[in-house]
């Protein structure tokens, strides 16, 4: 029996996924979580074989959750099921040790088969996204991404500096680097482009 923890912030989707997976004789949904922090607590408490998670959730995102699992070297597989068909998200997911990346519009039987494949040690990646991921590389480093995300939330350079414990000049340098790498005119355009590509 493959023991699954399901992390998804939309209750309807969470319930539907749980019901679909429970129809499979070799899959057992042992718990669900409505956000990333709750999922992290359940991961430690339940020790599932596979965590199935969305990307965008309150608290911790699915990618941050995968990174935390990787950092703590927890012995479980992570499969992301999302609406975000963005190569940038897939690249970051793979860097975080994710074994599966599927889109929510995939047939239910594809998800069940992907979970079996991942549990056996394989990978299950949406094929078109896999192709796109290697042709559209993310030029941003982690700090540039962090600063740009906060700028996109409307924070000023001094507010970002205070939050990240950096100087305002350093924050402006990171923003300038990100703007230059993305070939746009300002921080708002940089944020929009990076979001669209799945790099934030």
UniProtKB/TrEMBL annotation:
GO terms for biological process: phosphorelay signal transduction system; regulation of DNA-templated transcription. The keyword Endoplasmic reticulum does not apply. One of its GO terms (molecular function) is DNA binding. SUPFAM superfamilies: C-terminal effector domain of the bipartite response regulators, CheY-like. InterPro entries: CheY-like_superfamily, Sig_transdc_resp-reg_C-effctor, Sig_transdc_resp-reg_receiver, Tscrpt_reg_LuxR_C, WalR-like. Residues 3-119 form the Response regulatory domain. The modification 4-aspartylphosphate is found at residue 54. Pfam families: GerE, Response_reg. Keywords: DNA-binding, Phosphoprotein. Residues 133-198 form the HTH luxR-type domain. It comes from the Bacteria. This is Two-component system regulatory protein. The lineage of its organism: Bacteria, Pseudomonadati, Pseudomonadota, Gammaproteobacteria, Lysobacterales. Coiled coil: none annotated. Signal peptide: none annotated.
